[in-house]
Amino acid sequence: MSPAAILFDFDGTLIDSAPSILASFAAALQHTGLKAAVPLTPSLIGPPLLTTVGTLLGTDDEPTRQRFAAAFREQYDLAGYRHTVAYDGVPALLEGLHEAGIHLYIVTNKRILPTLRILDHLGWRDWFKAVYALDALQPPAANKPALVATVLTRHELAAGRTWMVGDSEEDRRSAETNGLRFFAAQWGYGSAGGAGLSKPAELTLAAGVNHP
Length: 212
Prior knowledge:
By secondary structure, this protein is an alpha/beta fold. The protein is built from eight helices and eight strands. α1 packs across α3 and α6 crosses α7 (about 170-175).
């Protein structure tokens, strides 16, 4: 049965955030005058921000890590987000699903401000029924499974007609906890279990949408 709605994770699923994160790290280094202890490569991306900052700067000093993290967020929100790129095939996927009348949602751990700025930068905002981040709720959602539950309730989405696509084990758990069919985006950084998609067009076919 074709889905009535699909919930998408954002980083590592729809967008490759590595260029924007690395550019923002570089800008934060320049802004703070701090020195990197390791090269700025995509291998840094993945752990929580403060952990990554400690690795990048080669320090466990909490005030230094916090100061750099604040500078990173400022630089990312100001201009770094513009370096974000879409994975090949994702724009066609989203456009096709939207034109087929499937309601699309974003559920992300990313902060809501840069998420919305990236969507506007890519010209994707109109394809999504709503965009949800942990910090978009008051109080903030405790975790992604709770965020997904909120989306289902607010939009009266039937679990049996709602799919979820993501690249992490947290995404998979979020779908399973809420009774959703899950698809693992294997073109990103994650290693989520579940039905795997090697390219976005495979989701178009699974949803029964005929789109080039």
